Amino acid sequence: MILRPDQKVANLRIITEAQQEQTIITPIADNGAREIQKIVCPATAGATQADYFVIENQAGTSFAVWIDIDAAGVQPTGAAYVAADVKITGSIATGDTAPQVAAKLKAIMDLDVNFVDAVITIDVATLIITQDLMGNVIAPARHNAGDLGNGSFVVSTFLEGNASNLQNKYFLIRSPTTTYSPWFNVNGEGVNPAGGGTALAVALVAGDSLALVASKLNTVLDNHAAFVSVVDAITSVISCTNAVIGEALNATVGTSGFTIYTGVQGAAMIYSAGMSPAALTNTPSLIAALS
Hints:
Blueprint: E1 14-16, E2 22-26, E3 34-40, E4 52-56, E5 62-69, H1 79-83, E6 86-92, H2 98-111, E7 118-123, E8 126-134, E9 141-143, E10 154-159, E11 173-174, E12 179-186, E13 198-204, H3 210-222, E14 227-231, E15 238-242, E16 259-264, E17 270-271, H4 277-282
Parallel strand pairs: 5-6, 12-13
Antiparallel strand pairs: 1-17, 2-15, 2-16, 3-8, 3-10, 4-5, 4-9, 7-8, 11-12, 14-15
């Protein structure tokens, strides 16, 4: 504030309260999922030589796994087998139970250096194949040796994969001096979208609920020196307040799909033009001479 020598001196009066900007954020849940497929294996007694199944990974690589009983079989001739990118021989023996067949096939697939981007677990006689990456893949298929029938495997998609709706999405939130860009990295598959300002990565897991997304985002915001943030445990609505007083540009939704609005507009402290001599004594920095 600059006072001219001829300006009237009155009482110092605050006409605007100092405020920290408060932003209200309502996030959404993540719908990403890794595809899970099931292959029910037969006992050797219920299988036919060279029965096989075909699965794919996220990269589109196809894997055909066929059963070779007592090392006496020959590779299938069916078109689906011939077209497969990777062919895996599953050696089993006469008398193997269904769980034994499943265990042998898992071991063989796990050891094949070309079998990538999926994890196999076993439930009794069922191979449970979980993709490493989110998203939908081609459904598994079963065949006999010449593709003239279904063969002895039973295949299904247990959980369809889905791309995350929050992967690499961001919004913008501001302090009086800096723009921040919180963005979401789901399953570690994300890449900073460079939405603007200082990036704040929020790590999510595919399929995180609304409450989990809100909690993880709130933690990132509250742990940053620029903000004090709390989340409502019932509604999952986040109230993020700037740590310092002053006006800031309003937050914007960016690509997040969230609902975001300004709860309290930030403001600096503003004084009226008149000042008392006492006030001038207490705050000499408010006086400047005009030349």
